[in-house]
Amino acid sequence: MSGQAAGRYVGQSIKRKEDPRLLTGQGRYVDDVQLPNMAHVAFVRSNIARGKITNLDISEALQVPGVIAIYTGDDLNPYIKEYWHTMGGPRPALDDPSGAHPPASVLAPGDVRFVGDPIAMVIAENRYVAEDAAEMVIVDIDVEEPIIGLDMAVAHPEMKVHHELNKNFSGIMPYMEVPPVDEMMASAPHVVTRRFKQARATNVPMEPRGIIVKHDRGANEITIWSATQNAHEVRSFCARLIGFPAQRIRAIAGDVGGGFGQKMMVSRDEAAMMIAGYLLGDRPIKWIEDRRESLIAANQAREEWVDVTMAVTPEGDIMGCRVNFLEDVGAYPPGAGGGAGMSAGMFPGPYKMPVVIPQGTSYFTNTCGKAPYRGPWMMETVAREQMMDHVAAEIGIDPIEFRRRNIIHQSDLPYTTCTTLVYDVVTPEETLDQAMEMLDLAKFRAEQEKARAEGRLLGLGVGVYIEPSAIAFGILSSDQANVRMDENGKVLVALSSGSHGHSIETTMPQVIAEHLGCDIDDIIIMQGDTASAPIGPGTGGSRTAVIVGGACQTAAGKLKAKILEIAAHTLEANVDDLEVNDSVVSVKGTPAKQLPFAQIAAMAYMMPEMLPEGMEMGLEVSARYKPAGSFTYSNATHVCTVEVDPKTGMVKILRYIVSEDCGQMINPMVVEGQIAGGVVQGIGGVLFEHMIYDKDGNPLATTFLDYLVPTAPEIPDIEYGHIQTMSNSLGGYKGMGEGGAIVSPPTVANAIHDAVKHLGVHPTDFPLGPSQIRDLLVHAGAAV
Amino acid sequence: MKPAPFEMHLPTSVSEVVALLDEHGDLAKPIAGGQSLVPMMSLRLASFEHLIDLNGVSELNQVSVNGDSLRIGAMVRQSTAEHDPQIVKSAPLVAKAIPHIGHFQIRNRGTVGGSIAHADPSSELPAVALALDATIEAVGPNGSREIAAKDFFVSTWETSLIDGEILTGVRFPIWSGKCGFVVEEVARRHGDFALVGVAAAVQVDGSKVAKAAIALFGVGGTPVRASEAEQALIAGGTSADLDAVGNLAAMNLAPSDDVHASGEYRKAVAATIVARAIAKALKEAQS
Ligand SMILES: Cc1cc2nc3c(=O)[nH]c(=O)nc-3n(C[C@H](O)[C@H](O)[C@H](O)COP(=O)(O)OP(=O)(O)OC[C@H]3O[C@@H](n4cnc5c(N)ncnc54)[C@H](O)[C@@H]3O)c2cc1C
């Protein structure tokens, strides 16, 4: 099953246009922006998870030479006008039964609610002085018992993180009694129940958060440089926050060193910067988050439990499931923070499940807030794909066979899931086949058996999933491309995208060059500056290829049409008889009759007499694209093989195989890069990364010494297989930015499970570090 | 992550260093490669008003062989020690330990003396010094003295160096004959501090084990010498029951828990890796 033939640009692994700049240290991040007279900020943060501030004394700190101002919650919080994000919409009422946002504050409002909670901000001549003074701010806190971890949040519904609210959850999908389902479950031949736990992780962008706020009182303008995925949101959030006219605010994102969801929304610390910068005026202020702050206070994710009960026939047909999603959203998630609603919808994934009854609660705890992290709803795949292996083990069938029995076939399409999603063009079975072929299953099973006889533990894990890419509703519905050919025939493109490392400067020019017929190096992309970028939600939800790509394709087509019209007029030919090659329009079959783009462009701007009657001068078009559906589905199968050391519990990944279908690939190298990055994050989430808190609410992984991001030696070469079936979105593209991170965790976990299940070990909880694995083996009597 | 203000002093001789430390007392700290000290200062876990830089003291850079011992100057970089022909030949256990220390960038700055003086219980070089019965040379306000490795490590980040004293060099006995040297460790990732590790050396004579040296790290406040295990290995010779040797080595350990592994894990895995290390060392000695 292969797609349309690769074009001159689309489908080619063109080297990244941004790399020479980024790889030689010439990128321009927030910290590279140096403004005259700029002051620097350090936050004073709580080292207590919960308590009343009984004394906050800044007098001594104010005496430190070089300190300009120190603001506390009392100084800044009263300036908050409105506090909400466009994507989530206005805040629900405090007593809304379905959920809540944390009460709005930018600095601790008289009490602290997690370790890392910003209490005060010191503004000084440089960051060194700011930190010196921050150490001298005296904070006394009357310690109260914090809510730490889901265990405690679930066990103590009467305890509240936010006294302003009448509940301790930010969202809830209540238990639903469904008598026919309950009867079916009661009488099903096999009913298996498991609780899967993910370990709390954090996004770890290479560039932590950073923001500069400059309030020019004279001009009545605010300019913000921000490490954001979404410059427009920075602007509109700031306008709402301080009640400043939005049209007088400009937000700029230069190069952004990763975000993975962390930088989709404005955080409290950044909001504090907006108010402080506004109040201070005239002196721009800069805050560059350091790594320790990033680890403890930027945002965290993945602390989730999923309870699955699955009913199956003896042959292995899934009859239905009940699923309960429990998530810890910390103290101050941006908005409600939860992802359970989307998880519920996606739970059936690539399988035919007659019924799924979801339930879920998103609990507040006295920990750092939850924010999106690459595939924020991915607990559904993490739970489902592990469940497939647990159920298979329980009913005694092969986990791959079990998947095949239930997987959606081509003949089932379009397929409507029991959760009402409609899959139009997906290939879960085909990717499973391709991955198995790449693996050579029989050969692996033979090696596994041989190794086992020698006391060595090899395992094979499989994960299959469907990715709801290009999420398109609300502000996420559409994107825009403004394509301008200048009077020299060069192409300037303004996009609503927000690059934080996605190769957009390469892939979108590929689409434009393909559909306009120009040289890719004649194109320059502008994005991330509200002064020039069309309105859009920035980058997130694996949207760029599909939605921005669709806008680019449409705009390039419109511009080409105008160019052809001018050329047809001058060449005295029919538009249909023209062709475009390498920025030259010529008459088919009469190559001597031709016009280069540069000449056409000169006519369009400077020679009105050369244009067809009534044509508007200039060569500038815009196009806004919204895909037909709310999602454009892509899919993949991942396969992993591991060796587990039975004595040390150490896991070595032997092979990692990905077969995926993201429709027409714009740039296969970029696709593989996206997959690799996600897979590494997923491997990290299972084997290494754990943002652990003690019972008092102290984060214990506050530097990279303890927060373990996988490094090159831990990661095998990833093997890629591609299947390309064209989506119904323009160009046939499907998004795939998150899938690598979504399905790799259960794939790795399943491989470990496969290595140890014959010993009676059935892991369900992440992380699976050496100590945890050895404990499981000891517990099962399989190690001493 | 910016350190508090400090003054940097750039002495060029040991006597100058000692005088500066004497002058500034508690407010001063020597800095070698800075790979442990600078992160602590940047995180403001430690602050010193005066840093006495050892990097300009060239007399601390020497490597020399003197009869049956090898001397490594305090400021010899870890990356130098890894490849220095004299060290590779005369104290292979030192050279073999070093690739386990962090990453090459860290080893390019980090020093042999800094690692031993810092006395991190998870560090490789202190265990190597203990296993090989190294002698630590120190110079301080009261002149110079020598400290046996077994008396040097007091507890986590604490040594028997007194105020104002610096480590100037370490002497390692040179082993001869048919020997095997192995450093084996379990770390979460390549380059991480070990959860638990072992430095082991054996000298064999036919089927006899003539000498054995085993020291564990990551199992307590200091590196731990496994004397009973050494005795059992010598008694058992090259066909000794290595699992039993491993168990003896781990028997009296009481490591503590941290976020990466339980104490119980460290103790159990210590036995495993001692057995694995000895097996490899015997094989090397016999080949
Ligand atoms: C990411 C990372 C990973 C690491 N992994 C490991 C690892 O796996 N194993 C390992 O062993 N180490 C590891 N380290 C630590 C590294 O090896 C350090 O270099 C070493 O611990 C200290 O050596 P230094 O020369 O950098 O000393 P410094 O950091 O300069 O000093 C450390 C301490 O020793 C004192 N000191 C230094 N030299 C002397 C002296 N001559 N006399 C008296 N006092 C002295 C200093 O005053 C200071 O208190 C790692 C470090 C990093 C940053």
**pLDDT < 50 stretches of chain B:** none
CATH class of the largest domain in chain B: Alpha Beta
Number of domains of chain A: 3
What is the fold named in CATH at topology level of the largest domain in chain A?
A: Aldehyde Oxidoreductase, domain 4
How many helices of chain B? Answer: 12
What is the distance, rounded to the nearest whole angstrom, between the alpha carbons of the first and last residues of chain B? 51 Å
DSSP strand content of chain B: 25-35%
Structural class of chain B: alpha+beta
| Radius of gyration of chain B over all CA atoms, rounded | 19 Å
| Small molecules (ligands, ions, cofactors) in the structure | flavin-adenine dinucleotide
Which structural class is indicated by helix and strand composition of chain A? alpha+beta
The separation of the N and C termini of chain A measures 51 Å
- Output the strand order for the largest sheet of chain B: 4-5-10-6-7
Q: Identify the overall geometry of chain B.
A: globular
At the first level of CATH, what is the class of the largest domain in chain A? Alpha Beta
- The strands making up the biggest β-sheet of chain A line up spatially as 3-5-1-12-9-10-11
- The quaternary state of the protein chains shown equals heterodimer
**Order of H and E elements of chain B:** EHEHEEEHHHHHHEEHEEEEEEEHHH
Question: What can you tell me about this protein's structure?
Answer:
By secondary structure, chain A is α+β, with helices and mostly antiparallel strands. Chain A folds into 3 domains: 160 residues, Aldehyde oxidase/xanthine dehydrogenase, molybdopterin binding domain (Aldehyde Oxidoreductase, domain 4, 2-Layer Sandwich), CATH 3.30.365; 200 residues, Aldehyde oxidase/xanthine dehydrogenase, a/b hammerhead (Aldehyde Oxidoreductase, domain 3), CATH 3.90.1170; 322 residues, Aldehyde Oxidoreductase, domain 4 (2-Layer Sandwich). In chain A, 29% of the residues lie in helices and 23% in strands. Chain A has a 7-stranded mixed beta sheet with strand order 3-5-1-12-9-10-11, sandwiched between helices. Chain A has a 5-stranded mixed beta sheet with strand order 7-15-14-13-8, sandwiched between helices. In chain A, β10, α7 and β11 form a beta-alpha-beta unit. The model of chain A has no long low-confidence stretch (mean pLDDT 96). Chain B has 3 domains: 47 residues, Uridine Diphospho-n-acetylenolpyruvylglucosamine Reductase, domain 2; 114 residues, Uridine Diphospho-n-acetylenolpyruvylglucosamine Reductase, domain 3, CATH 3.30.465; 109 residues, CO dehydrogenase flavoprotein, C-terminal domain (Enolase-like, domain 1, 2-Layer Sandwich), CATH 3.30.390. In chain B, 36% of the residues lie in helices and 26% in strands. Chain B has 12 helices and 14 strands. In chain B, strands 4-5-10-6-7 form a 5-stranded antiparallel beta sheet. In chain B, α7 packs across α8, α10 packs antiparallel against α11 and α11 packs across α12. Chain B is globular, with a radius of gyration of 19 Å. The structure holds flavin-adenine dinucleotide. The site of flavin-adenine dinucleotide has 31 residues of chain B, from β2, α2, α6, α7 and β10.
